[in-house]
Amino acid sequence: GCRSGSVEVPRSVTAVLGQDVVLPCGYRAQEGEKVVQVTWLKRGAGGAAAEVAVLNPEHGEHVKEPYAGRVLRRAPGALDDGAIVLKN
């Protein structure tokens, strides 16, 4: 079989209306693995998923409307830390 690392996210995140919130996402890689892209999705009513942001060091960061200007990476560098900050 093929082993892979694990995604580490909290079960819930509390936000305060009008303030920035960090949405954490970490990846604990196995030896030889490298994260090449992180995609953030928002689940809507009925379970449908809409793309919020794609983080890719080679092709840049792309944030979809209505989140443009409101989503930033929390930390530069390797995508093992794929957390984002959702502004206000």
TrEMBL record:
Domain Immunoglobulin V-set: 9-63
Location (main, coarse): membrane
GO BP term, example: homophilic cell adhesion via plasma membrane adhesion molecules
InterPro entries to which the protein is assigned, alphabetical: Ig-like_dom_sf, Ig-like_fold, Ig_V-set, Nectin/Nectin-like
One Gene Ontology cellular component: adherens junction
Keyword set, alphabetical order: Disulfide bond, Glycoprotein, Membrane, Repeat, Signal
Statement: the UniProt record of this protein carries the keyword Signal: yes
Location relative to the cell: Membrane
Superkingdom as given in the UniProt entry: Eukaryota
PANTHER family, A to Z: NECTIN-4, NECTIN-RELATED
Name under which the protein is recorded: NECT4 protein
Organism (species): Nothocercus julius
Gene this chain is encoded by: Nectin4
